[in-house]
Amino acid sequence: MKKLYKIVILLLIIFSSTPSFIPSVVMADTTTTVSAKAAIAVDAASGKILFNQNADQAGQGIASITKLLTVYMTYKEIQAGKLKWADKVSISDYAYSLTQGSVASNVAMAKGESFTVQDLVNACLIPSANSAAIALAEKIAGTEPKFVDTMTAQLKSWGVTDAKLINSSGLNNTDLPQANWYPGTDGTAENTMSAKDVAIIAVHLLKDFPQVLQITKQQTLVFDKGGASQTDMVNTDLMLPNSTYAYSGLDGLKTGTTVLAGSCFVGTAQQNGLRIITVVLNADDGSGSEDSRFAVTKSLMANIFETWEAYQISPARISLKEFKTVKVVNGKQSQVAVIPKDDVNVLAKSANVTYSLKFSNSKISVEAPLKKGQVVASVTASTTDKLGYLTGFTGHSISLITSSPVAKANPFVIAWNSFVNFVNKNL
After folding, report:
1. Which of 17, 108, 118, 201 could disulfide-pair with 85, CB 3.0 to 4.6 Å?
2. Residue among 67, 139, 196, 349 flagged as catalytic
């Protein structure tokens, strides 16, 4: 990036419980096109869209990029305490059959052996093992179709309603036994969604489970160490360090390829404190190679890091004006001053960035006692340009903290306050 973390003057602050914008500097992408059917680049921290090429177009094949959602659902089960990394997962005849002479990506599995959840997640992300995805789906939901239903429900909770999922792996039905097709689908069915939908999955994965990068950054990992199926897995991502298309700061995420989807890649890289996520679907740079996805991603990332910058807004520059205090309930004082907790970085192509602040609730009240520095509210900083944000994201969240402690009022005052509130509500 040309400049790093410049403090900018606050040009616009808007206080309301609903979004409100005025005309501002337009920071549209200057890149013309990339050699892909659809592509998008976003800021991983805020969901800010930095580049959009047919990214809203539904019906794009996503192939093994599907496994990012499969892995997300697995992390979610572990977080909920329903699954452990060391849990052993048996491989069904269906999953095992795909490892035998299949043209689909897989790891060799000894018949009758069980594998840990950790091994199966690693196999999904590193060599893109389809049987590993199926085994996880069957372990979590009982059957793969039921797992697909949970995947679809998860997408809908994120605001993604135009995706069509039929399995946990991303394979086309033509590569699977008909008995294992999702009910109601035909032989040409395959997982499809828009590039923007894929970006939403990737942002949620990195926000909720950033530890996934500790796997995706590995160029090789051992599968089933010490077991009958022990083998070295090689990452399909050729943009990692010392790889053919190595790119500075890149540490994930996932490749995907089918006849319908073409050459696809979701990449993420961090430079100078800015982490971006890119999605390229059906990439074709004219080489006729699957590696087109890496060449296209490398070009797109270079453009984004060159043209977009993170400008730092320090707390001292944020004037809260009408939102200087919050009401305190049952405290020795009726209100307390609040200040922004941390610096926030907004992305723009110029230091003359225009943005707005939106409070989650302008009439918030908090109950005593309160410590100094306690988070009591939040505000979102959003840049105002034509590219906007991913569905479900509105900008950078800034925590507001108390500038001083507030002790709890004595019991008599609290009792009186409760009585007054009761009277006001019921009379």
Report:
1. 118
2. 67
Radius of gyration of the chain, Cα coordinates, nearest whole angstrom: 25
In the residue annotation, 128 being an active-site residue is answered as: yes
Separation between Cα atoms, residue 68 and residue 80, nearest integer Å: 18
Q: Is 67 a catalytic residue?
A: yes
- Catalytic residue among 64, 105, 169, 382, which? 64
Tell me how far apart the terminal alpha carbons of the chain are, to the nearest angstrom: 62
Percentage of the chain lying above the pLDDT 90 cut: 63
- Residue tagged active-site, from 46, 128, 168, 292: 128
Per-residue H/E/C for 130-183: HHHHHHHHHHHHCCHHHHHHHHHHHHHHCCCCCCECCCCCCCCHHHCCHHHCCC
CB atoms within 10 A of CB 295: 22
Distances (CA, A) of 296 to 43, 243, 302: 18, 16, 10
Query: Following DSSP, what letter does each residue of 367-396 receive, concatenated?
Result: ESPB-TT-EEEEEEEEE-SSS-B-TT--SE
Q: How many beta carbons lie within 10 A of that of residue 193, not counting itself?
A: 25
At 120-159, the pLDDT tens digits run 999 999 999 999 999 999 999 999 999 999 999 999 999 9
164 as an active site residue: the answer is: no
Q: What sign does the CA torsion over 186, 97, 95, 169 have?
A: negative
3-state secondary structure of 190: coil
Please state the CATH superfamily assignment of the domain spanning residues 36-309 in this structure: DD-peptidase/beta-lactamase superfamily (3.40.710.10)
Question: Are 88 and 113 contacting, i.e. CB atoms less than 8 angstroms apart?
Answer: no
- Give residue limits of the domains in the chain: 36-309
Instruction: For 348-357, write each residue's pLDDT tens digit.
Output: 776 666 667 6
Which residue in this structure is represented by tokens 């200040």? 339
Which pLDDT band, with edges at 50, 70 and 90, does 411 fall under? confident
Which residue bears the tokens 């009022």? 409
Residue 240 makes CB contacts below 8 A (sequence gap 6+) with 217, 219, 246, 250, 251
Instruction: State the pTM of this model.
Output: 0.85
Residue 237's identity, in one-letter code, is: D
Q: How far is CA 107 from CA 75, 300, 346, in A?
A: 21, 32, 43
Confidence class for position 18, pLDDT limits 50, 70, 90: very low
Distance between CA atoms of residues 340 and 137, nearest Å: 43
Peptide bond into 253 cis (omega under 30): yes
